[in-house]
From TrEMBL, chain B:
Pfam families: ABC_tran, TOBE_2. This is Spermidine/putrescine import ATP-binding protein PotA. Keywords: ATP-binding, Cell inner membrane, Cell membrane, Membrane, Nucleotide-binding, Translocase, Transport. Its EC number is 7.6.2.11. InterPro entries: AAA+_ATPase, ABC_SmlMolc_Importer, ABC_transporter-like_ATP-bd, ABC_transporter-like_CS, Mo/tungstate-bd_C_term_dom, NA-bd_OB-fold, P-loop_NTPase, PotA-like. Signal peptide: none annotated. It comes from Mesorhizobium sangaii.
Amino acid sequence: MSNAAVTASAPATNSDKSILARLGAAFVGRLVIIVPYVWLLFFFLVPFIIVFKISLSQTAIAMPPYTPVLDFKDGISGFFAGFGALSFDNYAWLTQDALYFNAYVTSVIIAAISTVLTLIVGYPIAYGMARAPATIRPTLLMLVILPFWTSFLIRVYAWIGILKPEGLLNQLLLATGIISQPLIILNTYTAIFIGIVYSYLPFMVLPLYSSLEKMDYSLIEAAKDLGCPPTSAFWKITFPLSLPGVIAGCLLVFIPAVGEFVIPDLLGGSQTLMIGKTLWNEFFANRDWPVSSAVAVILLLLLTVPIMFFQQAQARAQEQDK
Amino acid sequence: MKSLGSIRRDFAPWNDPNAKPYIQFDNVTKKFGDFTAVNNLSLTIFEREFFALLGASGCGKSTLLRMLAGFEEPTAGRILLDGQDLRGIPPYRRPVNMMFQSYALFPHMTVENNIAFGLKQDGMPKPEIASRVAEMLKLVKLEQFAKRKPHQLSGGQRQRVALARSVAKRPKVLLLDEPLGALDKKLREETQFELMDLQQNLGLTFVVVTHDQEEAMTMADRIAIIDKGEVMQVATPAEVYEAPTSRFVAHFVGNVNMFEGKVAEQTANTTRIAGSSGAQIVVDNAAKTAAGADIVFAIRPEKIKISSKKPADAVNALEGEVYDIAYLGDMTVFHVRLDDGQMVRASTMNAARITEDPLSWNDRAWVSFRPDAGVVLTR
């Protein structure tokens, strides 16, 4: 009897264990998803709320340089009393001074032009890499990534040496007799374009390369076989199929380029107007934390809202495909 | 065995000395670096022929197809299509279309846009394109899938789209690179017959590359067997099977038994071959060969009779022991070890449900065959 009971209960405990194991596995599975969200919560959402709160405050000659400071010095009631002092005055201020509007618009235009230029420069590079013999592809990939091993700041400084009136580029062009007067490139928008295209090229080339490399070359042969000359085959087959790479590359270049500060500051000179520089000035020169926070919040909305709509549209298109 | 002709009895332009060749490979050589893929090869294909290039992978058959399509240029020699030298003509100007092994369907286009692609390239008016696409969809029975994308189709459906796309332009020649390679066995057999019907109905010239001998035998009017970039034999499926001209072809297509030996005696119609261990056989149709020369008699397993007693009237009968039996349902394959040590494969159709003369493992058995049941090979 007892023997029978033992044998009968054995499978039961087994299945209990497997239920526990399954729950455990499910928990581990959740954990994997939870970790990045916790990370985003603490290092993106919380700092964003702090910045947003500062943008609703007023400047003050104090430490920190704004008021109200939400703390528990006067107890919980004091904390909530601080909320009354918050206002959207700084956002109203941004609309009153054309400086900010112009800076946003210029930044978006400069970033857009730079993105298109980076795409034009990067596409042939990525295409060449994807069509290169498989044995040398890793080397080519390495060469694209190699500049990252030096400091970004130093690389941008190096461009000053190249672009300045008595710099390497002008010396070369004067020596070969192509020009008789040194070109003024440094401290112009051209220098900013050169700097952005150079600095962000790998971010364009890598996603393009990965989408081009996946492509089956027999598709091009099929297009040719059906009467399509090579150029036309590129626009009808290769380019549409590399579109995910094009979009990813453009976003990776455009987003950081809008808020770029180092390149316009070092290569663009004092008269160029970009939102990153405006922000820096408000923060460090004017010590106006609330206004600079408002500038940052608007910049964030300016970038994320269109991208969110775009991604939603893309997801819907993919859904229809299935 | 009166005839080894074509299955389509009224179609045999290769036997007509006045027939005009449609596709001609003239001493074509193709080298990739040091590797010679195609070696001084000549081949003639006729209009409306269903021609198969059969060979193991890497034998150069796909290179031949790609040269015809224009993706590769011959290193030497020339290729003529309907009398026109194809050298220097890019693939997009050649009146041939290819169905790719991977199908190469454009993943970002719907089925109908895939089929219409070539027609749009030709600048065909829109209403005509629409009616041609509809016709093609009907031909491959995919009408209700017109708006789908390739990734929403099954393997067999994709194969049909690829086929429809490649015949939509009514090319002079349709090239098919392993057209059925990715399909499962059942679907492959069905599709073979559909391809043959299609070729007959459209009246096109088909050149198909395959490594599957059964596929080539089923579909083709003639087969070219390719090895190491050279043509081993060009013949109808029946000729290739019943009258191979070399050991390679005999081995490559179907199963075969080879009796090696030396010419012992030759009369007007028969040759007596002495095997290395003393067994002698008498065979027909041997070309004039000097006595003592090395010679091979190749015979297919189903042409060999197996019995437990020596057949009274047999010219050639050799004794041995049953080594292995494979029962395959429709037929049984016996492996017999002859007393001189040679293994012989003999197959018997199981026409009756109960065998009159049952044989088992290790039984003594006789294998016998007629003098004209095989071919004599010298190379």
